Amino acid sequence: MLREVSYKTAAKIAAVAVLTVALAATVRAADDSTGNPVQAQIDHGKSTYASKCSHCHGPNMMNSGTITPDLRAFPDDKTRFVTTVKNGKNNKMPPWADILSDDEIGDLWAFISSRRKP
């Protein structure tokens, strides 16, 4: 009987340990290595920017000699940014609503707004 209780107790402890490790892994996946979810968003945005935006807007958010604006000077207006990315602009910037998810666009905003010129 005592042995049966010990096995049940050990099984419960093991289950709690597995769930704790799984929860910790989930939290780490949501945050970056510093544990900062905003920094994780910025990092994801930087990656998305490099693959989807830099060819027109330049690797440093400005591309001299083109019609694209210096994104470091983009106004602090997330709604305007999201609308522009989703719908395009003046038939010169294509719409990205069918290509980028809302989360990717939010990550782009986090990256771009983190690099804004004072």
UniProtKB/TrEMBL annotation:
Annotated Cytochrome c domain residues: 40-116
One of the Pfam families matching this protein, by short name: Cytochrome_CBB3
Signal peptide: 1-29
InterPro entries linked to this entry: Cyt_c-like_dom (IPR009056), Cyt_c-like_dom_sf (IPR036909), Cytochrome_c_Oxidase_Subunit (IPR050597)
A GO MF label: heme binding
Alphabetized UniProt keyword annotations: Heme, Iron, Metal-binding, Signal
UniProt-recorded name of the protein: Cytochrome c
SUPFAM superfamilies for the chain: Cytochrome c (SSF46626)
Keyword Iron appears in the UniProt entry: yes
